[in-house]
Amino acid sequence: MDAPVAERVYGDPVARWFATEAYRITDTARLVAAAGEQLVLAGIPLYRLAYFQLTLHPEFQGTAHFWRRGRGVETGTRPHGDNQDAEYRDNPLPTVFEERRTVRVRLDRVEPQAPLLRQLKDEGATDYVALPLLFTNGHVDALSIVSDKPGGFSDGDLDRMFLLQFAFTRLVEIHSLRDTAANLLDAYVGRAAGQRILAGEVKRGDGQTIEAVIWYCDLRGFTRASDRLPRDTVIALLNDYFDTMGTIVTDAGGEILKFMGDGMLAIFPVAAPADRAATASRAIRAAGSAIDAILVLNRIRAAEGAPAVRFGLALHLGEVTFGNIGASRRLDFTVIGPAVNYAARLEKLCRALDRSVLVSETMAALLPEEELTPLGAHALKDIDRPQAIFGLKGVPAS
User: Fold this and answer.
1) What global pTM score does this model have?
2) Which of these, 346, 343, 341, 338, lies nearest to 389 by C-alpha position?
């Protein structure tokens, strides 16, 4: 008579490893690599182990981790919209994902047509098995195992693997839920805010006072353009603009906090008082890069017959409150304070002064004089006295 399932599972050294050690590994690629090594040590004739993780992400639909014996692990992503190409459809994985069933191909007995399987056979693989990983919420990921042993996997090998499949599923389900939460928070509230939310800062009113360079920009003439242009053209305009601005801000170490219609609010946090000047310089360099990038974007758009992008950007440095604000059941993780209001009012001057970028006196005090052009003192709404305003030297009027 067969031993009870629990005895068969936990008498297996790999199962014990999954139960007592694997949960400590929080990086998915490292988990896949460690699992591959453990299976080989346990006598499974494993050549390749691959985990295919579907996720919610604005840029790609999933991540794949490939471990090969003696070569470590490699990770790749699959863009959205690639599910109908021939290379994917000929792969065994669509059957696993869509029909939720296991696929086995004895590579030493057939001449496979799928490009992936032909490649594996050329590498010396003899057996390929792909299995669905069924999560408790109905989501499906996939795992594939490949052997290069003559004759492939034995019935005993596969019996062990099918039992271990459930332990692996529970572990990667935790990884997947964590990654999905992080991806969505990164996409919708920003990386820094997302990290703080995941760390437990979810109570309304939670927050801290920080010093930061405030980046406040919006499109010039957007209201008029949105009234006369087709919806898809307006959306494409916004996406081109925000993608250009957002990439520059994040590459320079800034944090995008929110999009407001055609406006974008971002910050460059100041880690310590000694870092004020360096942070201000990073923000100014990013502003210069934005001007150059929009010029390139407008050349591309002109060639396509699309309207040009014109923007106004204000840079100011000050203290802000960074935290949870909103209704009891709908919060926004953002910054508030007089410094944010100042930046928003300063940006409104871009049109009047015919400038793409305006810099406050507080910011200007931290920057070399040769980088700026004084534009005189100007009144800002609800500010008691006229304020000294600066533009970027060498940048023509917009």
Assistant:
1) 0.70
2) 346
∠ CA 310-334-326, nearest 5°, is 120
Superfamily (CATH) of domain 5-188: GAF domain (3.30.450.40)
User: What is the chain's length?
Assistant: 398
* Distance from C-alpha of 105 to C-alpha of 129, rounded to nearest angstrom: 7
CA distance linking residue 186 with residue 169, whole number of Å: 25
In whole angstroms, what is the distance from residue 9 CA to residue 24 CA? 20
Numbers of helices and strands, H then E, in the chain? 13, 14
Residue 398: closest CA among 356, 357, 346, 358: 356
CB neighbour list of residue 233: distance below 8 Å, 6 or more residues apart = 306, 307
Q: What is the distance between the alpha carbons of residues 190 and 195, in angstroms, rounded to a whole number?
A: 9
Fold annotation for 192-392: Alpha-Beta Plaits (3.30.70)
Q: Assess contact for 229 and 274: CB atoms under 8 A.
A: no
Alpha helices in the chain (DSSP H): 5-10, 13-20, 28-41, 86-89, 93-99, 115-122, 155-189, 191-198, 222-228, 231-251, 276-303, 338-353, 361-364
| Chain segment 178-223, per-residue pLDDT in tens | 888 887 777 777 777 777 777 777 677 777 889 999 999 999 888 7
